[in-house]
Amino acid sequence: MVKRFERFSFTISEISKYWHKLTANEMEKHGLRGMHSVYLLTMLAYPEGVTSAQMCELCGRDKSDVSRMMSIMEKKGLTTKEGIYQNLYRGVYKLTKEGKAAAEQVRCRVSIAVDLAGKDLDDDKRAIFYEALESIALNLRELCREGLPE
């Protein structure tokens, strides 16, 4: 059991490390950090816009991180905020034309990275792998919320 845990932990850590390095390299082209890729891709999926609260939920980040990241992207002309400005968390963020172009480029590059990372997997193994990852993530989220059983 311990050996399985070590392999699992090391592999997830290694995947995360290299994935973050790749996204950081790609986002550097836009003067942004790797985490901005998650925000750009999320916003691309919601062209009608998203609130800070929605971004927190969709990206798994807290309000301060969302606020900071969106502010940086707004200053770079990639996003705009529409709606209620009196309440920082009620306005709707949308991608600008430049933001959409950057997000499309990121999506293209991410697709290439995912294809190359999984090049040794056939379609069936890839489907099983993603299903397993999703299951593990959901189970870990629940364990964090409810705590480990005694």
Describe the model.
This protein is mainly alpha-helical and 150 residues long. It has two domains: 96 residues, Winged helix-like DNA-binding domain superfamily/Winged helix DNA-binding domain (Arc Repressor Mutant, subunit A); 32 residues. It is 69% helix and 7% strand. It is built from six helices and three strands, in the order H-H-E-H-H-E-E-H-H. The protein has a three-stranded antiparallel β-sheet. It is globular and about 50 Å long. The two termini are 18 Å apart.
Features of this protein?
150 residues, mainly alpha, Arc Repressor Mutant, subunit A, three-stranded antiparallel β-sheet, 6 helices, 69% helix, 7% strand
Show the helix and strand layout.
Layout: H1 2-28, H2 36-45, E1 50-51, H3 52-59, H4 63-75, E2 79-82, E3 92-95, H5 97-117, H6 123-146
Antiparallel strand pairs: 1-3, 2-3
